[in-house]
């Protein structure tokens, strides 16, 4: 199974849902509309394309792009053909919500909770969407690029040893 075959199958089935596509490092990457992501992934799993394994769900943050500030990235794998696929869906920060895949893949449960925990993206229909790795009292999502990486007021570090 080739990337071209998978892409043509998706374009044929969901012509209005595919925003763009590319092949970084040989892996087909398809950007889709966020409202169609679950429907496309369900098709990839239940059709002859055989993407039965959800490898990863994670988030991404581009603060400089308000229309596509937050995104969810899904990695799928067709094990018999050893074909991998990346699906991306972007959304504005004030509408950071996408359908949950927990009814399609049981393993999506923890990955979606982790994405919510670190990026604040909500998954509609998730059975138990709550913080799992960070302190619930923290009050923010640490992977958002709105926080400094280091505390500039620290005096206990000598940066000359690190080339700064």
From TrEMBL:
The lineage of its organism: Bacteria, Pseudomonadati, Bacteroidota, Flavobacteriia, Flavobacteriales. It catalyses: a quinone + NADH + 5 H(+)(in) = a quinol + NAD(+) + 4 H(+)(out). It is an enzyme of class 7 (translocase). Belongs to the complex I 30 kDa subunit family. Pfam families: Complex1_30kDa. The keyword Iron-sulfur does not apply. Coiled coil: none annotated. One of its GO terms (molecular function) is quinone binding. InterPro entries: NADH_quin_OxRdtase_su_C/D-like (IPR037232), NADH_UbQ_OxRdtase_30kDa_su (IPR001268), NADH_UbQ_OxRdtase_CS (IPR020396). NDH-1 shuttles electrons from NADH, via FMN and iron-sulfur (Fe-S) centers, to quinones in the respiratory chain. This is NADH-quinone oxidoreductase. Its EC number is 7.1.1.-. It comes from the Bacteria.
């Amino acid at each position: 199974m080739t990337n071209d075959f998978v892409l043509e199958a998706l374009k044929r089935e969901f012509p209005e849902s595919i925003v763009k596509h590319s092949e970084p490092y040989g892996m087909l990457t398809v950007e889709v509309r966020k409202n169609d992501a679950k429907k496309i992934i369900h098709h990839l799993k239940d059709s002859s394309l055989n993407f039965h394994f959800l490898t990863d769900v994670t988030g991404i943050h581009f603060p400089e792009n308000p229309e596509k500030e937050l995104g969810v990235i899904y990695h799928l794998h067709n094990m018999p053909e050893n074909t991998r696929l990346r699906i991306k869906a972007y959304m504005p920060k004030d509408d950071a919500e996408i359908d949950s895949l927990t009814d399609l893949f049981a393993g999506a449960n923890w990955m979606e909770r982790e994405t919510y925990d670190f990026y604040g993206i909500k998954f509609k229909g998730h059975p138990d969407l709550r913080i799992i790795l960070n302190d619930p009292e923290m009050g923010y999502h640490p992977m958002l690029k709105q926080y400094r990486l280091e505390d500039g007021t620290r005096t206990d570090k000598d940066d000359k040893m690190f080339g700064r």
